[in-house]
Automatic annotation (TrEMBL):
One CC-aspect GO term: cytosol
InterPro entries assigned: Cof (IPR000150), HAD-like_sf (IPR036412), HAD-SF_hydro_IIB (IPR006379), HAD_sf (IPR023214)
Name under which the protein is recorded: Sugar-phosphatase
NCBIfam families: Cof-subfamily, HAD-SF-IIB
Length: 278
C-alpha cells in the first residue's frame, strides 16, 4: 500500500471555509501527527506568500509554500524557485488588457516584492484585494516596479468575458503567458508551466517523494494539474464538475472542514488509505 509522504492544500474554497477561517486546534493536532510521521505539509495557492504565511503563524517557518499558483516556491523560509515573465511580455499583456473589450476588468500585477495596481483602479475592489495581497502598492507606470520579478497577473472580470479573454491570451501570447481560472470571476495569467503541479514536483524531488505518495486537495481550475499529478487527489464537494473529474476522490465541502476530515482518515489508515487485508 502506498504511504502518503506529502499533503498539499489549496486555500480558498478548500482548506478555508467561506469565512476564510479554519479550525486551528483541529489542524494543529493533525499537523503534530504529520510531523511525527515525517509527512510534509505544503500550502499550494494562487495567493501571495505574505498572505499565506499569515494563516500559519505557529509553523510558517517549518512548512513549504507553493505560492502565486506555483510562481514562487519557499521551503522553511528558503526560496527554491521564483519565476518571472520577460518584461516585454508584461508590456504586451498590459497592452492587450487595456485595448481589449473586457467590461469591468480589474487587475493586479504580482511580483516577489509586492503586488501592484495602476492608478485609477476601483477602490472597493482594492479593499477586497488587500485581504489576498498583504503587500500591494500603486504605480503610475510599469518601470516603478523596479527590478522586481513579475510573475503573475491577477484579473477580475464578469464571468461572461472570462472565456473570450482566456482565448485572446492564448492566441496573442501563446507560449509566453498562460491563463488559468480559479472561478468566481478570477483569472490568473502565469508563466507557462509555472503551475502548482510544477511546484509540488520540485518539492517532491527535493524530498525524494514520488507523486503517488502525495495527498492533494483543490477546488478550482488552477488545481487541475496538481490533482491530475497526485496519487491521492481530492476535489472538494463544492468544486465544479471539471475539477471533480480531474481528481481521484471526493472530499466533503470546505465549510465542513473536508480537508481535515480526509487528513484524519489518512492518519487513521481508513478509506482509500487502508492497507489491503492480509
Amino acid at each position: 500500500m502506498t504511504t502518503v509522504k506529502m499533503v498539499a492544500v489549496d486555500m480558498d474554497g478548500t482548506f478555508l471555509d467561506d469565512q476564510k477561517q479554519y479550525n486551528r486546534s483541529r489542524f494543529l493536532a493533525c499537523y503534530q501527527q504529520l510531523t511525527a510521521r515525517d509527512i510534509k505539509f505544503v500550502v499550494a495557492s494562487g495567493n501571495q506568500y505574505y498572505q499565506l504565511k499569515s494563516f500559519f503563524p505557529e509553523i510558517a517557518s517549518d512548512i513549504a509554500f507553493v505560492a502565486e499558483n506555483g510562481a514562487w516556491i519557499i521551503d522553511r523560509d528558503e526560496e527554491l524557485f521564483c519565476g518571472a515573465f520577460a518584461r516585454s511580455d508584461v508590456e504586451a499583456v498590459i497592452d492587450t488588457l487595456q485595448n481589449g473589450h473586457y467590461p469591468g476588468l480589474r487587475y493586479l500585477l504580482c511580483g516577489r516584492n509586492s503586488a501592484y495596481y495602476f492608478d485609477g483602479m476601483e477602490e472597493s475592489w482594492l479593499v477586497k484585494m488587500r485581504h489576498y495581497c498583504h503587500r500591494l502598492r500603486p504605480i503610475h507606470q510599469l518601470d516603478e516596479t523596479g527590478d522586481d520579478r513579475l510573475f503573475k497577473f491577477a484579473l477580475n472580470l464578469s464571468d461572461d468575458y472570462i472565456e473570450p479573454l482566456m482565448a485572446d491570451i492564448e492566441h496573442l501570447h501563446q507560449g509566453k503567458v498562460a491563463a488559468t481560472s480559479s472561478g468566481h470571476g478570477s483569472v490568473d495569467l502565469i508563466v507557462p508551466g509555472h503551475h502548482k503541479a510544477n511546484g509540488l514536483n520540485l518539492l517532491a524531488q527535493r524530498w525524494g517523494i514520488s507523486h503517488d505518495q502525495v495527498l492533494a486537495f483543490g477546488d478550482g481550475g488552477n488545481d487541475l494539474e496538481m490533482l491530475k499529478q497526485s496519487g491521492f487527489s481530492f476535489a472538494m464537494a463544492n468544486a465544479p464538475d471539471r475539477v471533480k473529474q480531474a481528481a481521484r476522490y471526493l472530499a466533503p465541502a470546505n465549510n465542513q472542514q473536508g480537508v481535515l476530515q480526509v487528513i484524519e482518515q489518512m492518519l487513521a489508515g481508513e478509506g482509500p488509505f487502508a492497507s489491503p487485508a492480509g
